[in-house]
Structure prediction request, 523 residues.
Amino acid sequence: MNKQVYFPVLIIIATVTFVIGIPAAELQTTAEITGFQELTRHGELMEYLREVTASSKLVSMSSMGTSVEDRDIPALFFTRDRTFGTKRTQKPVVMIFCQQHGNEPSGKEAALILARELRDAQKHFLQSMDIILIPQMNPDGSEKDERRNANDEDLNRSHVALIEPETAAIHRVFREWMPEVTLDVHEYNAITESWVDSGYVKDADEQLGGVTNVNISTEIMAFTRERMIPAVGAKLEAAGYTFHRYIVGSPFEDGRLRYSTTAINDGRQSLGIYNTFAFILEGKRYGDVTNRLRRRTEAQLAAMIAFLEVVAEHQKSILEITREAREQLLRVPSMDPEDMIHIQMDYFPDSTRPSVKFPIFNLHTWRPEIRDLTPFEPLVMPKKSIWKSHGYILAGGDEKIVNLLSRHMVIMFKLKQPIEVKVEGYRIVNFTTRHEEEMEMENVDAHPFTETKTLAAESIIIPINQPAGNLLPLMLEPHSSFSIVTEYSGRRDNFSEYVRVGEVYPIYRLMEPVDPNLLDPLW
Ligand SMILES: [Zn+2]
Prediction:
């Protein structure tokens, strides 16, 4: 008599176990399967991501391109809507990308787990945002546990030249979707010689940095500094992790502590310059690549989830601020203070904040502590600023620079017929050096002049009022710290021939608008 009741109950239990239990257990990364003794290699990553994608309607996968050694670089697109992207969904797009540096694998391992969790909709992030997740930017470096890619280039210093296929790929994806928020995930080496010699090491489990180039919207910088970074930190500290806003430099000898570089050739500023909430995450790493891999991966995953929670909480403000800031880039310049562009800048002390409290591990007492460190130079100030012009003119229609700008998807036009326009040019006077951000920089001394110039038909006109409107002067002004003619990531393209002492710089500033009827789009 009992058997008849008993039997269906068993079947129900078995069914429930099958549906809920088995798929999660089946889909694990190599790191999880090996108890974090081994890293997930590229082939395993591809297989894992194909399974994540095949098992959910929330996610699709596409190839961003391939690495130097022809390994696929996949991107996952998560949305709850039928279509993807801010314009259609009215939700911010968040792009997370990991492992530009091949020997910093914990972000990738965390991203793989995050992909599974987003698919399972355990987090409700997709109600507030669409997400592009790129677990591995540098598969070639990763396979060899090396920082650089297979061309021996540091990908996180090559976002201006965009010669490397890996960085060119991320800029294509960025410009296609224009994410309002980006997160570039790294690891920092906590144990360095000068710190150990002084008896302590850096001890923040996670550091989060925002944009610092002063040309980026002040609203984005203020919201980042005052609302977003502290909120991510509070969540991580509540979860048992130590946290600090990302600090570089050292408190020893002639050193100083500051926030990380203002240069636009990294994965944060190069996207931030489009008025994006762009961030860098730095997890703590020491020893070899698998040392404490479980803890590192857990910390990175906790940080990414805290980050997404903070974005979700502020999704409306993020959308409003980026919309407004990006509209500013599309305005024709009119000599407003807003139309200044700062082409040289550096960090300076702030008398109200001479020191910074930072979590360290004391090697003498063998205990963690919060140490008050000096000297601290937290203020970025412009050193040289100029008015924005109406655009730039390539009088000779230079193919090399057109190719560079097209990799940045810059909007360019060709003149249909010869015209006369007011321009500003530069004559190159001298080369000197100057000191900026702990580097000897080449200083191009260029004297401006104004003239009315006859431009030949087919001359290339690059208007300033476009999404890359802040990027263009930084790249093209000869005395910019970020210029292709001096900036080291541009050197492989060899634009140094553009600056010859005594000669005129071959890129002119356009000083008045050109009738749009005289222009043909270049593409
Ligand atoms: Zn890195």
Observations:
- The pocket of zinc ion is lined by residues 101, 104, 156, 186 (CB under 6 Å).
- The radius of gyration is 25 Å.
- The chain has a mean pLDDT of 91.
